Amino acid sequence: MAPSPSRLFAEIATAEPPVETPVLMRRAVVLGGSMAGLMAARVLSDHAEEVLIIERDPSDVDAGPRPGVPQGSQVHALLPAGQVQLERWFPGIADEALALGAPPPPSDQGTAKVFVNGMLGLPPATTDTGPALITTRPFLEALVRRRTLAVDNIRLVYGRAEGLLFDERRVTGARYVPEGGTEPLVEAADLVVDAMGRSSRVSDWLAEHGWPRPPMQRMPIKLNYATALYKRDEKVSDAWVAVFHTMAGKGRTARIGGINSVEGDRWIMLVAGYDEDRPSRDVADFTARCREHYPQMFGDIAERGEMLGGVVTYHQADSRRRDFHKLDRLPAGLVAAGDAVASFNPVYGQGMTSATLHASCLSAYLRSGPKPHDEPARAYFDQVRVVVDAAWQISTTADIELPHVDGPYPPGYKVTKWFGDLLFRTSLTDPVLNARLGRVTTMLDHPATLSRPGTLLRALRLGLFGGSRR
Ligand SMILES: Cc1cc2nc3c(=O)[nH]c(=O)nc-3n(C[C@H](O)[C@H](O)[C@H](O)COP(=O)(O)OP(=O)(O)OC[C@H]3O[C@@H](n4cnc5c(N)ncnc54)[C@H](O)[C@@H]3O)c2cc1C
Prior knowledge:
This is 2-polyprenyl-6-methoxyphenol hydroxylase-like FAD-dependent oxidoreductase. GO terms for molecular function: FAD binding. By secondary structure, this protein is α/β, with parallel strands linked by helices. The chain contains 13 helices and 15 strands. It is globular, with a radius of gyration of 22 Å. Bound molecules: flavin-adenine dinucleotide. Flavin-adenine dinucleotide binds near residues 37, 57, 68, 161 and 196.
């Protein structure tokens, strides 16, 4: 019998270091050197004699946000499952982050505040994944890049990938224009990884060579982010981490907010809305929103804190997934990872963690001893599908409730929604359900674990009849 998605998910999300890593190929080429590409390169370094990353952004990327990752200035939270994977592939990375200036967690976990529909909920349940790694996105990415490039057989070149090379059955390499050059160069490869993010053109490149495009699903979320950095100052606020989520409902507008204490003794603060509710780059607008629509700590920081730089905005039109697993024809020698496969509403913080879990899928696939240059990587895409389905279910089941979103509705939506609402409501006050739901929303467990009888019955008992919380 095939293992269930939740069992497969547990294997993918494992913290166990990989063993038995056969070298299967001479050279792998990774297109895109951001979170997904770096993680894939690290995994491939165990299975290829040589790994080459081709990244479009110029060489001074450690300096901060960069054009190829325009979302990099916005608040980025790494979920616990992502932290587990980072530690699995780069042992000691969390300690290294702390040594380099990531803020150590305070002794009192209660300083992490969660506001749901305007009310203070239970703080996030503690997990056994170690202290949360809370940093800006460029800081974390730079750390992962340094650790990846410290591996002997990984090399990075700067240049813009422009196409794939094919023979009748497989991808044989990639073409790119090096930084500062005009003439394309060709790199032969036994395996090419598409890690070029949500705007990857690999579907076009497949189509140009007579291969089908992976079917794309979209959910039009129309999300509007605005973020600003502030100098951290205890006299202004004792905020460490705050998450604010108001769902659309009677008299309520859907809004999201967040405060993280990050490296450099700073706060990064986010306000976000949907559709026509668009925070602007105007500081007065940002401050007014913080004061009027968010808990006091947002207003205090906005009004009395020292802003560093300006307000940066970002609009994301949709959540999207490319279902490579549905293709009836797929060339050998090609895989895709990270946002190139699926990118979600960022308010759930799933993107970077998904990229690390895709790397885990790649490792499981390669450890099974396939011939990636000979056979399409179907077993890899089947595993990735488990991760994408899990993240997609969490984010789209919630987003479909937004007034401006009208589908696509998944099968069994009404029942899922009814139970999801019940579970969510009861988890706000019940520590056991809070912890179980928390393990799913932080991608440590598959959503199907929530339909186990113990959880179902507990939610029903508490939600319908009110009952003992023990
Ligand atoms: C506003 C916002 C907030 C977010 N917040 C969170 C969060 O809190 N937590 C979280 O986990 N995720 C968050 N995400 C999602 C996260 O940013 C992505 O999931 C993550 O960056 C995906 O990594 P990636 O490597 O797949 O793609 P990307 O990070 O998009 O990187 C793609 C890389 O490919 C390169 N590239 C593109 N084209 C080419 C080419 N032709 N040749 C060579 N290189 C190329 C780019 O330069 C870039 O380096 C957020 C996203 C947004 C939009």
